[in-house]
Structures are given as C-alpha cells and as structure tokens.
Design brief:
Two copies of one chain form a homodimer. The first copy, chain A, is 77% helix and 0% strand. With 187 residues, chain A is mainly alpha-helical. The radius of gyration of chain A is 18 Å and the shape is elongated. At the A-B interface, helix 1, helix 6, helix 7, helix 8 and helix 9 of A face helix 1, helix 6, helix 7, helix 8 and helix 9 of B. The first copy, chain A, binds a DNA duplex (18 and 18 nucleotides) through helix 3.
DNA sequence: GTCTATAGGAAGATAGAC
DNA sequence: GTCTATCTTCCTATAGAC
C-alpha cells in the first residue's frame, strides 16, 4: 500500500472548509480536490461514491468532533458545570473562528441537500442538544427547562452566524455567545 | 407591447420559491423558468442579466415585502405596540409557512453568493432590525435594549428555521415565535 | 413576449498510465 | 495512491422564428 499524499485528517479538514463555505451544490469536485492539493481522480479513489460520499465522510467527521468537543466535555463529571461550559464555549469559538466561518449543518440544510443528509444532520444537532441538556440538568434545572435552554443555545449559534454573515460583522455571534454564558451563570 | 404570459408578481413568487429552497448555486435556470411556467429564453428576455439579475429582482421584492409587512406595521403609530406585534407575528408565520419554508436571506448567505448580494442582504436584515427596534422603543425599552431585543428576534427566527429544517420538525420555529411574543408582552 | 434549437463551457464521473 | 486525459451530462447564455 502506497502511503497517501495527504493524510485523512488534513483531507477532511480541507473538504469541510469548502463544503461549509459553499454548500453541497456550490462545491465543485475541482474545488474539493484543490482544497487538499489532490486531483479530482484521486478523490474518487478515496471516495468512490463521489461528492455524496465525500459529504457523508465530512458529516461523520463533524459528528465525531461534536461528540468529542461538545457532548463529552459537557457531560464530563470530573469538572464543574461552569468549567465545562467555559471549555465548550472556547471550542465553539474556534469551530466558527469567532463568527467568521459558517456551520456545515446550516450549509447542508438547503432543501436539495437536506434530502440527502437528513439523518446525519439530525444526529449531529441532536447530540449538540443532548450535551447542553445534560449541562443544564447539572446546573440544577429541570430536564424540561434544561432542554429548552439547549435548544436556545443551538438556535442562538445558528441564527447569530447567519446574521453575522448577512451584516458583515462578527458582533452578533460574539454577543450571542456571551448571552449563552450569562444564561447559565446568572442562575 | 404583447401582454406577458405571467404577471410580474406571480413570476417573482415562483422565482423566490426556488431560490429560497435551493440557494443560488443550487437553482438552475430550467428550474427557475419552470417555477412559473415560462421557458428559459423567456426569462432572459425579462432579465437580460441572467441568474444574477433574477436574484437581485427577487431580493428587491423581498426587501419591499419586509418594508411593507414588517417595518411599516411595526412603526404604525395608529396601533398599539401589542397590536402591531400580533400583526407582524402573523406575517412572519405566513412568510415561513409556520417553519416549513426557509429564509431566502439565509439561502443566499453562502460565501459564494453573499459576495454577489452583500448589500441587498444587509439592507433587508437591517430594515427588519430597525422595525423591531422601533417596536421595543414604543414598548418602553431604552434604544439600546430595544435594539438588542431586535437582534434577538432576527437571530431566533433564522436559527429556529435552521434547527427546524435540521430536525425535521416545525416545533423549534413555533416555540421561538412564541418566545418572541412573550419577550415583549411579559414586561 | 414567448418559444425551439443550439452554442460553449463547466460539472460529475471514469479509463488507464505511472 | 496519484496523475493526465477524456466522456457525458448539465449548465448558462444566445440566435432567430413566430
């Protein structure tokens, strides 16, 4: 087996960058290949199913990222709820580069692509919500109240990213993240 | 002048439906034409600039809609703030079909398309925020507090639409709209 | 103003050499 | 495992008849 020119992780990072920025329809295989320095045909060697399989691989990668850096940290019983929240807020900041980058779950939620990736998008969002629900419970909220807050967190992140993009300023995202911290800490 | 087969309003409604569902890159001219029963070449007759001009026309149409059904109603001094809010909540429900339909401002906010329509998206979002800021002021909030609430409204709508789409349920959108009403009425 | 037909190019996908 | 070259299909856009 000849060693790959580009490692899996670097490859997936590049592919994700294109998909989150341009969406499924907007991402061409040339761009996807170019993002990691490979040629189109080499991408097909790694992902025989073409663009759909590439996108599924990226979604799986994202799902693992959320499990590791959102869900597991939010449910880590060896830390206080406040410490966990602080950690995860940092992860979120780096994931979206302080509001500069889009969310791939949003980028793939056009009618034409959500159809192809419904289950994967749903699972990632659900994992995110489950993590924050657990955090809310550990903060002392009832399960219902904690879940409601968890939805508000996901909605605030997604919404503020769109508004930031639309207005050309990261301020809405930054303010939304601060509001999330306040929402838990003020109680 | 031969009368048009499809009136401007019906044409724009069809074009908007495609663009909001599939985004800029995802909408082909065949689909755009088909949405109103015209042929591709007829679309070029009405919009010589092609897809870009079509999208600009739809964005202008959307901007006028927001001015008329969001901004003007929110600033209509002949009604009480509560009446205005109720009216506009209804408009929002119908615009997004209770959470089933996407927002075209979101659909066009991929990196590849926001580049082309930056100003138009920004103006529409700003008009929306200005309307809700005025409402908040008339509810008795300071200008700063009113503007913060206005941002929260736009963020909650955009975010809940994405989460609704991702989870395959309109519940998040419906809950978000109810929370918006509560946010103003509870004070 | 609308249509059919088509040019010209970019897209997704494959073949086969190295 | 990666590459160049190529196939086919779809796309944007235009020409010209009605």
């Amino acid at each position: 087996m000849r060693p790959p020119k580009v490692e899996d992780q670097a490859l997936l990072d590049g592919l994700m960058a294109v998909l989150r920025a341009k969406g499924y329809e907007g991402s061409s295989l040339n761009e996807l290949a170019g993002s990691s320095g490979l040629q189109k045909a080499s991408l097909y060697h790694r992902f025989p199913g073409g663009k759909k399989e590439i996108t599924l691989a990226v979604l799986h990668y994202v799902h693992e990222w959320i499990r590791k850096y959102i869900y597991e940290r939010l449910t880590d019983q060896s830390l206080s709820p406040a410490e966990r929240l602080g950690d995860v807020i940092q992860s979120i900041h780096s994931l979206y580069q302080g509001g500069e980058k889009s969310c791939i779950l949003k980028a793939l939620s056009m009618d034409s692509s959500v159809e192809l990736f419904r289950e994967e998008i749903k699972e990632s969002m659900q994992r995110w919500i489950d993590g924050f629900t657990a955090l809310g419970v550990d903060y002392g909220f009832t399960r219902d109240a904690a879940q409601e807050k968890a939805f508000q967190v996901l909605i605030a992140i997604q919404g503020s990213l769109i508004v930031s993009k639309g207005l050309g300023s990261t301020a809405p995202f930054v303010a939304a993240v601060e509001a999330i911290e306040k929402m838990y800490r003020e109680v």
